[in-house]
Amino acid sequence: MIEKKYQFWFCTGSQDLYGEECLSHVAEHSKMMVEELNRSGNLPFEVVWKPTLITNELIRKTLNEANMDENCAGVITWMHTFSPAKSWILGLQEYRKPLLHLHTQFNREIPYDTIDMDFMNENQSAHGDREYGHIFSRLGMERKVVMGYWADEEVQKRIGAWMRTAVGVIESSHIRVMRVADNMRNVAVTEGDKVEAQIRFGWEVDAYPINEIAESVAGVSQSDINALVDEYYEKYQILLEGRDAAEFKKHVAVQAGIELGFERFLKEKNYQAIVTHFGDLGNLQQLPGLAIQRLMEKGYGFGAEGDWKTAAMVRLMKIMTGNMKDAKGTSFMEDYTYNLVPGKEGILEAHMLEICPSIAEGPISIKAQPLSMGDREDPARLVFTAKEGPAIATSLIDLGDRFRLLINDVNCKKTEKQMPKLPVATAFWTPEPNLQVGTESWILAGGAHHTAFSYDLTAEQMGDWAEAMGIEAVYIDKDTTIRQLKNELRWNQASYRR
After folding, report:
1. What local confidence, expressed as pLDDT, does residue 28 receive?
2. Which of 46, 123, 220, 486 has the most C-beta neighbours closer than 10 Å?
């Protein structure tokens, strides 16, 4: 769902103190680095070399050109030699996109036998990058710093991870959430300031009457519905569980119509995320289940019970994981119930229907089961269990005077036993550092019961996004203690107070 071919500009800083021969070496070295970075296979986007920046005018011109270039998602900067930081002030003040400060040097090892002052003057990133880094701190500007040898795989992968965050920052201002229902009555955590969200993140959150979308569903042709049902039956296992086959297929067809009608409406109105609510279904025959699951798999964000913040976050995280090789999946999720048996502690995660099949491991089945909420016919849904492995769960909450992003490292695992009577997709995880500290920390920080969940993103990436947006990020991980967390929340309250 993202059409731009994003690029990242590689800008090398220097000055003319050491003559043209030195500058020619700087340009040669930076070109070689860019070529190798692009060949490495560790970066998800192309790096574009730019001429060496040595004057106020050229720095300012280049950074403003980056601002204006729609395909440029950010700039990678590196000071090959000393670069006087006052030359960067005006350009940095006018720059508006993500920036990575790569602290590296062209040579891996000190050439002990041949090193002289000419070499020292030309290869002094340890000097130049500190001068450059100082001006960022003086200006109070956000940036990402990655240190290490540029040809090392670990460094390249960190650059690649930041690139995904940078695209998330750029694309955040393009996220539009369609609300087809309000928040669930009397529920606090799914509420929030939509105006402040647009100011802070660029998100547009708009409401539509449910029956306007229901009309789009009703307008879907029977031939299109039949074709999509055939696709369902080819792709998924069908679990009749005693139901009449023809009657079951009618329930599935309703979801096919909802998927096609919703997607058509989303495309026509240019929305990339959607929220629904079981308490406001209008003329829909079923609560959207399988339909929403399929839309999420295509890249749309989703939040239940009117939770537009989580819908936008799911969309954002799907953007950040776009075209990722061997991706394990990203989804909307909800905390349900605990297993408190010693040594087997964890949280059973699910929702009534709407979990993205991108996280599934093993067969995916279609069931049609009664649902007490919604007052409609039995909705069809995809049923599966989630993959094992490390992941993150995030919760964006509105504290009234600011937004806070909670980021919890979790470990997904299989449940001890099958759950044959539970007709929903499920995940089971234990939060870091353990269930007790992880859940207490989540509650102390005000975390929601809905989360945007991903196997493919890291806490560092989401924290970088939060910092770029100027909001508070709270990490819950293997090093978290309750005492430390309480102090951090107190300090953050003072630091982020408007």
Report:
1. 97
2. 123
Q: What are phi and psi of 72, to 5 degrees?
A: -85, 115
pTM above 0.90, yes or no: yes
174: buried, middle or exposed (CB in 10 Å: 19+, 13-18, 0-12)?
Answer: middle
DSSP state of 286: S
Which alpha helices (DSSP H) does 7-152 contain, by range? 19-39, 56-68, 89-94, 117-122, 125-139
pLDDT at site 498: 62
Which residue in 226, 98, 110, 240 sits closest to 170, CA to CA?
98
Q: Which of 483, 346, 317 is nearest to 411 (CA)?
A: 346
CB 13 within 8 A of CB 23: no
Q: Closest by alpha carbon to 23, among 1, 50, 52? A: 52
What are the C-alpha distances in Å from 385 to residues 168, 363, 365, 399, 414?
28, 8, 10, 34, 8
| 70-83: pLDDT as tens digits | 999 999 999 999 99
- pLDDT tens track for 114-167: 999 999 989 999 999 999 999 999 999 999 999 999 999 999 999 999 999 999
Q: State both tokens at 75.
A: 């700039």
Q: Which two tokens stand for residue 200?
A: 């802070």
**Residue 432 CB-half CA count within 13 A:** 19
Structure confidence at residue 60 (pLDDT):
97
